[in-house]
Design goal:
The protein is mainly alpha-helical. The chain has one domain (about 5-195). Helix content is about 70%, strand content about 5%. The protein has helices spanning about 5-30, 35-60, 70-80, 100-110, 110-125, 135, 150-195, and strands at about 135-140, 145-150. A two-stranded antiparallel ribbon has the order 1-2.
């Protein structure tokens, strides 16, 4: 018996692909322009996409042992989940989205360095020491003097970190992207082979 779940998985896969492509292109442009903090924000979003897509792979792996209604609910939350209900017209009852940290935590169980990388990006992305004073100011040896602006050596080091994280994300992302297509094709064949019920 056919179901809409494979379509939902492919909808997410295709949408995530275009979002990830846009984010990666933006990150490269930002790094080329030496806008490192902005690039870190964008690379962090790429990591979130990768973690979400990896969750799809895990769902596909357990598709035969997961309750179909539960899987549909999770997929619906991934596709149409809305946090700010008041920002959408009140005619439709949207589900709550899955918090992105849930995807990060799930993936981190398989890859401990992933969470460390994500948290290092968060440090620079947030307006705290790493993202503000440390990045945009340097105390001069003369008391009372401060030089403002990004530091070239710090920028160079942080660019390397961003590029390394991007490369790892792209590798994992592409493997998962291709595996989703393979798994959905197998799934549809399995569903077609099931006896039809009236």
């Amino acid at each position: 018996m056919l179901t809409k779940r494979p379509f939902q998985v492919l909808l997410l896969r295709g949408s995530l692909f275009h979002r990830t492509d846009e984010l990666l292109n933006s990150a490269v442009m930002l790094l080329e322009a030496d806008n490192v903090v902005a690039a870190f924000l964008v690379v962090r979003a790429v990591m979130e996409n990768m973690a979400m897509q990896h969750r799809l792979i895990k769902m596909l792996a357990t598709r035969n042992t997961t309750d179909p209604a539960e899987m549909t609910e999770v997929l619906n939350r991934m596709i149409v989940g809305v946090k700010m209900q008041h920002s959408i017209d009140g005619e439709m009852d949207y589900p709550q989205p899955i918090n992105v940290m849930t995807f990060i935590e799930h993936f981190s169980k398989e890859n401990a360095t992933f969470k460390m990388s994500f948290e290092s990006l968060c440090e620079l992305a947030h307006p705290n020491h790493q993202g503000v004073a440390s990045h945009y100011s340097e105390l001069d040896p003369n008391p009372g003097y401060v030089t403002f602006g990004p530091k070239p050596e710090t920028n160079r080091q942080r660019k390397e970190i961003a590029l390394e994280i991007m490369n790892v994300c792209i590798e994992i992302y592409l493997v998962d992207y291709l595996n989703i297509a393979r798994d959905v094709e197998e799934w549809v064949s399995e569903l077609k082979a099931q006896p039809q019920t009236a």
